[in-house]
Structures are given as structure tokens and as C-alpha cells.
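Regression test case RT-17, inverse folding.

Input:
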């Protein structure tokens, strides 16, 4: 079984670091494995700038503000659709503002790779049906899942270091 992660850079403001595409694939695969999702999956990940993510957030969520990441799951009523041509489950789309990721990495004092990994894992959990919008125990469980996966990838919280991109 092999998963397909389609990665597109739709912005020109931030150079995407070497190794980022592999990191995103590792995050997607680790999340699927950790969550026990055993069907072959297809995920789309796009990098945009703050202006573009604000437009998308306004259009789809009626929130005219920049955000770090948006998730667009493609399941309905708990059911995933299998693409007949490929036999893969199309989980959905992840849109990351690379500008916001750079800002947050600097603000939190960790590497851009760690921030991109966090945003990818966070969004993957949304694509698999997890939520945190209501806070409380849902949010606690989602944070625990995120940190468990990031720890498995060697990117635990509170670790401030520069990742050797060749090691990713």
C-alpha cells in the first residue's frame, strides 16, 4: 500500500526549504499509520502566502483573516470516497500559509521544519475527522495525538534546534 501526497507551491514570497516535500510525506504517512488508516490515500498539500490563505479563509469559512493552515476533508457522513481509477481514498486538501509558518516558527523559537510538520499533522488529523474547535477534551485529545506523531518523527514540542535538511 502506498499513499500519494501531491505538493504544490502556489506562492513566491518564501523559498521552500530543501527536504520539505519529504518531511510532509513523512508527516502524512506517520499520521495515517498512527491513526490506523489502512487504505491507500491521496492528499493534496499546497503552500500559499498570507494574502491567498486570507482569501480562502474568507470564502470558505467567512473569516476574513490570515491563518496558518486550512483543511478541507472530503468525507461525507463518516464515509470516504474511493477514486475508481486509482483505488485510493481521496482524503482532502491541506493549505499552508508558508509566510505564517515562518512567523510562527520564529515566535515559538523552533525550526521552520518543525512548524511545517506540526501544521501538516494537525491538518491530517482534521482530514481524518478529528476536531478541536469546541475546546475541552476534544482539543486535549487532538493535541496529544499531534505531539505523539511529532515525537515519533523526532520533532517533539519544546525542542529548539535547526534541523539538518539532509537528515529529513
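Golden output:
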Amino acid at each position: 500500500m502506498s499513499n500519494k501526497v501531491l505538493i504544490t507551491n502556489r506562492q513566491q514570497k518564501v523559498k521552500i526549504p530543501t527536504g520539505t516535500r519529504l518531511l510532509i510525506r513523512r508527516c502524512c504517512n506517520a499520521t495515517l499509520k498512527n491513526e490506523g488508516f489502512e487504505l491507500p490515500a491521496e492528499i493534496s498539500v499546497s503552500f500559499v502566502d498570507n494574502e491567498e490563505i486570507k482569501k480562502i479563509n474568507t470564502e470558505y469559512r467567512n473569516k476574513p483573516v490570515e491563518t496558518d493552515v486550512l483543511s478541507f476533508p472530503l468525507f461525507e457522513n463518516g464515509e470516504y470516497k474511493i477514486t475508481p481509477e486509482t483505488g485510493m481514498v481521496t482524503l482532502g486538501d491541506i493549505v499552508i500559509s508558508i509566510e505564517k509558518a515562518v512567523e510562527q516558527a520564529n515566535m515559538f523559537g523552533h525550526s521552520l521544519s518543525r512548524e511545517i510538520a506540526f501544521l501538516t499533522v494537525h491538518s491530517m488529523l482534521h482530514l481524518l475527522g478529528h476536531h478541536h474547535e469546541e475546546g475541552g477534551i476534544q482539543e486535549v485529545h487532538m493535541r496529544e495525538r499531534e505531539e505523539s506523531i511529532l515525537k515519533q518523527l523526532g520533532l517533539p514540542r519544546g525542542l529548539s534546534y535547526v534541523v539538518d535538511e539532509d537528515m529529513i
